[in-house]
Design a protein that fits this description.
- The structure holds two protein chains of two kinds.
- Chain A is of the alpha+beta class.
- Chain A has a single domain, classed as RNA polymerase II/Efflux pump adaptor protein, barrel-sandwich hybrid domain (OB fold (Dihydrolipoamide Acetyltransferase, E2P)).
- Chain A is built from six helices and nine strands; from the N terminus they run αβββαβββββααβαα.
- Chain A has a six-stranded antiparallel β-sheet.
- In chain A, strand 2 and strand 3 form a beta hairpin.
- The radius of gyration of chain A is 14 Å and the shape is globular.
- Chain A starts with a helix and ends with a helix.
- By secondary structure, chain B is an alpha+beta fold.
- Chain B folds into three domains: 137 residues, Gyrase A, domain 2, CATH 3.30.1360; 97 residues, Aminomethyltransferase beta-barrel domains (Alpha-Beta Plaits), CATH 3.30.70; 75 residues, Beta Barrel (Elongation Factor Tu (Ef-tu), domain 3).
- Chain B has a six-stranded mixed β-sheet with strand order 10-11-12-9-3-13. A six-stranded antiparallel barrel of chain B has the order 14-17-16-15-18-19. A five-stranded antiparallel β-sheet of chain B has the order 5-6-7-4-8, with helices on one face.
- In chain B, strand 11 and strand 12 form a beta hairpin.
- In chain B, helix 2 crosses helix 7.
- Chain B is globular.
- The chains are: A alpha+beta, B alpha+beta.
- The interface between A and B is medium-sized, with 19 and 29 residues.
Amino acid sequence: MEEGKEMTDEYKVEEGFYYTKEHEWAKVDGGMVLIGIDDYAQGQLHEIVYVELPDMDAEVGQGEALGAVESVKAVSDLYSPVAGKVVEVNESLLDSPEKINNDPYGEGWIVKVEPSSLDADLGNLMDAAAYKEFMATL
Amino acid sequence: MELKKTHIYEYHAEHGNVVDFGGFAMPVWYDGIQVEHKAVREGCGIFDTSHMGRTWAEGPEAEKFLNYVVTNNVSKLEPYGGLYTVMCKPTGGIVDDLILYKFSTEKYLLVYNASNREKDFKWLKKNSKDFKVKLNDVSDGVGMIAVQGPKAVDVLQKITEENIGEVPRFGIADLTISGYKVLAGRTGYTGEDGFEVFVLDCSLDNPEKALKIWNDLVGAGAVPCGLGARDSTRLEAGLWLYGNDIDESINPLEAGLRWTVKLKKPGYFVGRRAIQSMKDEGVKKTLVGVMMEERGIPRHGYEVMDMEENLIGVVTSGGMSPTLGKGIALAYVPPEFKAKGTELYIKIRNKFVKGKVVKHRPFYDDSVYGWKREKK
């Protein structure tokens, strides 16, 4: 089979972010952690039409389900890159889920978590350089 | 395994996002599912449907054979008319849904699902043994393009010599499109007006005729649409997808296909006894349409609960309706839940999300969208 377009398109890996193998990102910001899905993941899903957000104050462990991101055709679970408590959710995504397609590392952030074991959790994630190496193996 | 390619593959490879769809290399979208969906509801979209099954049934007993193997009454068809029907196992389980077009009592064209091509042809062949009928699978020798939407007739007319406006719904006509002799049936799988064009004598090795018609349609203003929009438009129209909403474990009475089963037509047909006894006993589950009242997208396989949170059924097709902006689903539930307005929950991940039973064929307002819409 010939490769589809989405397989050959370039995707952006933002410096200064941490990444999971499931293509979530985490960005440490003033003691809090912003979480989203990366450019590769949004490109794979294509047109995102719905985001399921977690409840405020929900406690999550690293790798546990935080919500889901859905396109017309597919559902992608969102797993938390770090353990902690949900302190903010990006409610604007409920009406404008396409922000994740347009700006996955910025306006398309999904959840803000107050981390409970940040240093240990970051040790399990990849930085931008390591993530690029990982992506090259896919 | 190498994927099978259709007559239009050259275009898909250049413009589309091609995936493995049941062994065929097919596009899921070109520019995006939502814009393609919108083109079908508001303008004109075209779909490559060359992966579907097409078989000629010819011979002095063609009509008798078809009346034996399908549930609908083939004798009611006039020449150049088409009929939607199912064919069933002796158990009443659905082998496939299909459209058959009549040219004479001795000549019919059968059009069935891509995923069932081999199974259906074998089934037809096996059941044709006692009839004077010859079956000829021409799936690879006929290109097929669906032209769909409120502007489909206008767009297709631009490249067609004959006047196509007079062809009745479900009728088929000999037409000259892009200079080639074709057949075109006024039907489709989107809920919209339009045609399915059969490009005759067009082999996979020499697909130029089909490609020329496809490219001429694009030039005339049609928007190429992939399988994503094909699924989202058919779901909004409330149409059955074989393998999801119907299969060999489902009886046409359960699937809301009672209208395609003519129990009183003369002679036996395969599945008749089982369907009759299910009719006498009553069905235990029935296909309903569900529209979400809260945020959430139902998907194939999700569980359906009553308001006391008891498991009552399962979603067989679901998704976000681009036209309605809400999650919609087809689901099997016990008949006591089939009344319009009945509230129920769909379990989406770990949440019970509220929905209600609605009219679903189609889900949208058919005075605004679809082939019955009021012409402006």
